[in-house]
Structure of PARP catalytic domain-containing protein:
Amino acid sequence: MLTSFCLNHGTSTPGKFLVEVGVQPIRRMLTMRCNCPCYRTRPKLRLISRVVLLVLCVLLRIVASILYSQANRPLFFMLCAGSIVFLLISLAFDYYHYRVWWHYRPSNDNIHSRYSSKHRRFLPYHLLGENRNAMMLGNAPCSREPCTNRELEHILIYHFRDHRPQQRWFEIKSDDYIGFHQRGAEKAIEIAHSDFTLSQTPPQMLGFGIYFARSINDTEFKARQKEAIICAVIRMGKVRVIEYKDIPSVQNTNAWHQEYDTIYYKHINPTKDEFCIKSVDQILEWVMVIKKEWDSKVKDYRIDIEFSDTRCSCI
């Protein structure tokens, strides 16, 4: 009765409040499962917040149970002590929620083996930077210019597709360099469980090896398959910088492998630079995103709309 009164208070039609506001925001408010926009891209922060809250609740229940025990109130003692189990179950669900988001596994990943040690994680496609909202506090894209954060997750989540994390290689000559690559979804999943393979089927403009570009957009006109995005840290090693006139000397061959680790193509248009590495050992780590058309799990689990019915930017 009390619940019905609360839900219908101030409305002329029974249940109108539920219709207007919805059940999910009310449940979030009652369970203190906040849906603040800052959590959209920070599932670990959300987990930590929940763990702190639930651990505090558990400690208070333990104290209350001790007090009830000393006051010789066995019924209240059992109820209070028993309720701790439900808090632990809630904590387990929160951890599962965190795993679904931050240790994501695409719908078509049916390979039952460990991921490569280089594989940091898959990100669900709706976390890509193109889905950030500059007008929403906590969910805005990175505003630092230039941004010096080289974390792969940060690059994919808080920057748009045309973001180039670093200058052209020959301008900074950094040993570790960020590269972008696109592959078919199934092949990307195979890579996640094993490693890259060298492209050795002609035509290969920079010779046989593994190709990377400087941003997601820069891969669009180079990749033969565009179902998965891979952002990786590359150990460049000994680099040969070439221009258009030098292409015939490296094209469709691995002869340059004897002397160089990487061929960097300095295009007349800086957005079209690309580079080719000779060995999978040069790839240190990567983060992958399977595109929307080839990953149904985001829709199946409804994690792309988890925040869509948020009221007051929080519940």
